[in-house]
Specification:
about 15% helix, mainly beta, Thrombin, subunit H
């Protein structure tokens, strides 16, 4: 089993995704790292699907678009996406956002 290279942090915000091979859908990002995320959704997305993912971060800016992702695993109504291609400005924004999650106190 391949192990994740970066720590995933708990998160809760909206997202949407699309693929040339499927209509697309919406979901909730449940955890996030610099290299990927877990999305809960009503749409079943098969492992190996290539996606474009839009992360609707709670920072009042337009959605952060990850142009190229691949679904590494899928179970029921959630899947794990690895980010493959991210524009430099989006990578910087994602890094800043992940940093705010890391420095936030954990709820008790």
């Amino acid at each position: 089993m391949e192990r994740r290279q970066t720590l995933r942090l708990k998160a809760q915000f909206r997202s949407s995704f699309s693929s040339p091979k499927m209509v697309g859908g919406e979901g909730t990002v449940e955890d996030l790292s610099h290299t990927g995320c877990r999305i809960a959704t009503l749409v079943q997305v098969p492992q190996g699907t290539s996606l474009e993912v839009r992360l609707i971060l709670p920072d009042d800016l337009p959605p952060l678009t990850v142009e190229s992702c691949i679904v590494r695993w899928s179970r029921g109504h959630e899947f794990g996406a690895q980010f493959l291609d991210l524009r430099e400005e989006n990578r910087a924004r994602l890094t800043r956002f992940v940093g705010t999650i890391q420095s936030s106190p954990s709820p008790s």
